Amino acid sequence: MTNFNFKNAKNSKEATKLISGRATFLAGGMTLLPAIKLRLASYSDLINIKKIKNLSGVKVSSKSIKIGATTTHATVSSSKKVGKSIPSLALLAEGIGDPQVRNRGTLGGSIANNDPAADYPAACLALNSTIHTSKRKIPADKFFKGMFDTDLKKGELIEAVEFNVPEKSSYAKFPNPASRYAIVGVYVAKFKNEVRVAITGAASCVFRSKELEATLSTNFTSSAIDSINIKSDEFNEDIHASGEYRAHIIKVMAKKAVSSC
Fold first, then answer.
1. Domain range holding 228?
2. What is the CATH number of the domain that holds 34?
3. Does residue 63 lie within any of the structural domains?
4. Region 196-223: what's the mean pLDDT?
5. 143 in any annotated domain
6. What torsion do the CA atoms of 72, 189, 146, 97 make, to the nearest 10 degrees?
7. Mind listing the pLDDT tens digit for each residue in 163-194?
8. Which positions ≥6 away from 32 have C-beta within 8 Å?
């Protein structure tokens, strides 16, 4: 492990002031600490935000659920508020990693890292969420930029994510059997005026499927998906699955998600 300074922040304002040079925020550390240990990343200062009380917890309104950035996956999965308003979001959180990861990993850390196969980015896009930071509010459609890349600026801290409550929704994932990361994950959300479909694991960054959205907006049935042609030209190719196979699994998971709504 490389040397670094460890600093505790009492509130968001103090946390952002402590960021300078090669400093970064630390919450659950499920991605950050292994990256440092393997020397894939190096920082002069780690700013601990885990003790900032207003960054955790779940708040519910009639139209949305606002979840603090340092709220753990385990808390989201077991929350009665989340389970009642957006049960698919609770089930998504329950399927992340293993118990150790779910009890340490956080919502904010997951979307800030923006792993191509992470689950929460798909929820953010499908549920038309808003990412609340220390500086602004960012629509999810503008937040995820590319592989491990987001719209966050230097020193900008995610404080909460606000998910819109859909009429119905479901997340279906084809997981890597070892890591439980999504080889392909499809999140379908039906709102009064639109259907949103987000896909993770298939490409270099989470994305919305315009083809699936257009089809399901006119015919919200799993059988309607049969006629869709998913192009695999820009999909990931690795030891787990080819791009063509991922395209096939997208349709399988999409049908499963729609059937479960």
1. 168-261
2. 3.30.43.10
3. no
4. 98
5. no
6. 30
7. 999 999 999 999 999 889 999 999 999 999 99
8. 24, 26, 41, 46, 109
Q: Residue 27 has which token pair?
A: 């919450």
Q: Is residue 58 part of a domain?
A: no
CB 144 within 8 A of CB 109: no
- pLDDT recorded at residue 1: 58
Place of tokens 């955790």: 56
Q: Is residue 67 part of a domain?
A: no
Total of domains in the chain = 2
pTM: 0.96
